[in-house]
Amino acid sequence: MKSPPLVLGFDTSGPHCAAALLRGTDVLMNRVEKMGRGQAERLMVLLEEILAEAGVTWTALDALGVGVGPGNFTGIRISVSAARGLALGLGIPAVGVDGFEARRVRGELAAVPAPRDQVYAALQGEAPRLMPRQEAEDAARDAGLTCAPVATPPKIAVAIAREAMERFQTEPTPPAPLYLRAADAAPSSDQPPKLIDG
Asked: HSE on the CB side for 41, CA within 13 Å?
């Protein structure tokens, strides 16, 4: 009898480095480390630790799940590039899971905190977008929902792995970042140097 699929999920789209390992519906490992920076150095080490503590190797994995945002630009790129590279190297699928799917809870408007008292949210019948927190709270109340965005849910990686578990056999496209706002960094206002022809 074939054993249930083994899926590793991870996310660095917020102020955290999170990873979970699932075999079928069983959560073998779940770890969330809150951190404002340093995810690039910590992610692969954390994944190695999760696998070692569960007593499995990379080659035992059937699929990967990765948080694709919205959230921190650098954090999203860290996870998505790691997932794409691992999937290619291991020859297994990687599934991108957005922050709304990872935060889906009955009775709540799935929303992701953003800077300057804003949130990312998908209102009924609308595409996800960045909006003032008050707008999201008002829309949630009108729909009979609550709105309590959490930057680092304790089971975010578990939710990502579960979603990937459901989709990895039917979703062939590699994960891609979900950016819903422009980068905070502005282009340089300095004038480029003039080239001198010899």
From this structure: 4
pLDDT of residue 195: 54
For residue 22, what are the β-bridge partners?
Answer: 7, 27
Class of domain 1-103+152-180: alpha beta
Question: What SS3 class is residue 164?
Answer: helix
What lies within 8 Å, CB to CB, of 58 at 6+ separation is: 51, 86, 90
- pTM above threshold 0.85: yes
Dihedral (CA of 156, 91, 179, 76) sign: positive
pLDDT digits (tens, 9 = 90+) for 79-88: 999 999 999 9
CA-based radius of gyration for the chain: 19
CB burial of residue 111 (10 Å; 0-12, 13-18, 19+)? buried
Residue-wise pLDDT for 3-61, tens only, equals 899 999 999 999 999 999 999 999 999 999 999 999 999 999 999 999 999 999 999 99
List the domain boundaries for the chain.
1-103+152-180, 106-149
| Tokens, residue 155 | 């089971």
What are the CA-CA distances from residue 144 to residues 123, 134, 163 (Å)? Answer: 12, 15, 25
